[in-house]
Specification:
Largest sheet: 6 strands, mixed
Structural class: alpha/beta
Strand order of the largest sheet: 8-7-9-6-10-11
Helix content: 40-55%
Strand content: 15-25%
Number of strands: 11
Order of helices and strands: EEEHEHHEHHHHHEHEHEHHHEHEE
Number of helices: 14
Distance between the termini: 55 Å
Shape: elongated
Length: 473
């Protein structure tokens, strides 16, 4: 039986916004590109465009050989998990697309694999070519495509590398060769980009080299080019477009750990993307602001931070639900982000901030001056309460653990945005890492920053951290 590899992608500049898809069919035995397909589809969401790309790739493979088996590779976790039957399909725009896609080939002849975006450059480039054509009022044409150049360069680079073992016609070895070639395309493109553009630095400078690689691999996902952000001369971030940096940071925080981090049969984890609320008037003053204080609203800066996070998460397209703390600042942040994602916000009391008792509204220095003994005890004992009957870190941890277990059960296999506060987010991370309570004092969490914890069926967890919010200002 002949085997094809289908790689597909889709994107939307606005989500929803001008959208397009790209798909490529490869011969699994040789890695040869057999068919390229791409189309501008008008205004649609990222996920709809990704499903359209999948459908186009499957149909192209079916036209080549309806009796073949197909291995689909996509960087959309949503599409891969839904088509694999591990996640439910609830969105009305995606249900009919998924149903049609499932009928192109018999289900037992199609397998799905999630891959990092850098391994899906061929389809990604086709999708962007289609969107660029649509912007010009044209339709994409294979005659003008340059996406195959990536694959050709990869095949050339892979030709001198040792091939996976197996007889010449062995489909598994051929698929491995194709995967190696496509992985080489990402590395080749990164090397090419890094040598052509990027932050300056002496040859061999590790810092400049790392910055060049980051720039090459973190270009904006399906977004139009933007001007470089203002930054000091020589800064490694100077040549990176703000939207591209935001997307890369969101990807770093929202990408689930690779299969090597957990047994392959554990299934899709429940992934909590942890977002601290945007700034309030108390944030830059570094005042204690818990659940027993004045319950401040976001400042103008905080609202702008939330808008930027929402736009970046929309471009990524992985969030499936939003849960917020009941406090005003978190509900405001969640509402702004939800408007970008087209989702409703649920409220959970369990992820509210700690009650700091009599310390609410005070700076650390003011607390030390007024309550020195209580503060020293609090810093050394997780069971100690803030002055005036606040909540201890131990009590907070018990509450967060209960909320975690409830949310993991409710959102198994899904990616959920939890909009919360400093102490709860630090506690989620501490518990996932198995770190001691004193580790809370060794973490810093910026306003509107993102972290993520993936919870697997065997009880293990993996943590991804991102705490630089400079791109949000």
């Amino acid at each position: 039986m002949r085997e094809f590899i289908v790689e597909a992608d889709g994107g939307s500049r606005g989500n929803p916004g001008p959208a397009g898809y790209g798909a490529v069919v490869l011969d699994a035995a040789t890695g040869e590109t057999l068919v390229e397909a791409a189309e501008y589809i008008g205004v649609a969401t990222n996920n709809v465009a990704e499903y359209r790309g999948l459908l186009a790739g499957l149909r192209a493979a079916h036209e080549l050989d309806p009796s073949a088996s197909v291995h689909v590779r996509m960087d959309s976790k949503l599409v891969v998990e839904q088509m694999s039957g591990r996640w439910k399909i609830k969105h009305p725009d995606m249900k009919p697309l998924a149903m049609v896609a499932s009928q192109v080939f018999p289900p037992d002849r199609v397998t799905y694999e999630w891959i990092p975006r850098e391994q899906n450059k061929h389809a990604d480039r086709l999708a962007n070519e289609a969107m660029d054509a649509g912007k010009r009022g044209e339709q994409w044409s294979a005659a003008t495509s340059t996406a195959e150049l990536d694959a050709a360069a990869a095949r050339s680079a892979a030709a001198s590398a040792p091939e996976p073992s197996g007889p010449p016609g062995d489909a598994a070895a051929g698929a491995a060769r194709a995967r190696a070639a496509l992985a080489g395309a990402g590395a080749s493109a990164a090397r090419s980009d890094a040598s052509a553009t990027g932050p300056s630095g002496p040859s061999g400078d590790a810092v400049a080299g790392a910055a060049k690689a980051r720039e090459a691999l973190t270009r904006g996902r399906h977004t139009e080019g933007t001007s470089p952000a203002a930054s000091p001369a020589g800064s490694a971030a100077a040549a990176v477009p703000p939207d591209a940096k935001a997307d890369a940071d969101v990807r770093a925080a929202t990408t689930v750990a690779s299969p090597g981090w957990a047994p392959a049969d554990m299934g899709a984890p429940a992934t909590f993307v942890l977002l601290r609320h945007g700034e309030t008037p108390l944030t830059p003053q570094k005042r204690f602001s818990g659940s027993g204080g004045t319950n401040p609203s976001l400042s103008d800066i905080g609202r702008d931070q939330a808008e930027r996070v929402g736009a970046a998460l929309a471009r990524r397209g992985t969030i499936q639900a939003i849960v917020a703390s009941p406090l005003t600042r978190t509900r405001e942040t969640a509402g702004i982000v939800a408007a970008h994602l087209g989702l409703e916000v649920s409220v959970d009391e369990g992820i509210r901030e700690t009650d700091f008792g009599a310390w609410e509204g005070l700076t650390f220095a003011e607390v030390r001056e007024r309550y020195p003994d209580d503060l020293n005890t609090w810093l050394s004992d997780p069971e100690a309460q803030p002055s005036g009957g606040g909540e201890s870190f131990a009590a907070t941890a018990t509450r967060i653990a209960a909320a975690r277990d409830k949310l993991v059960a409710a959102y198994a296999g899904r990616t959920v945005l939890l909009v919360s506060h400093v102490t709860p987010i630090k506690t989620f991370v501490r518990l996932a890492l198995g770190a001691p309570p004193e580790s809370l004092f060794r973490m810093e969490l910026s306003a509107a920053s993102l972290s993520a914890v993936a919870y697997y069926a065997d009880g293990n967890a993996s943590v991804r951290l991102f705490n630089d919010t400079s791109h949000l200002r």
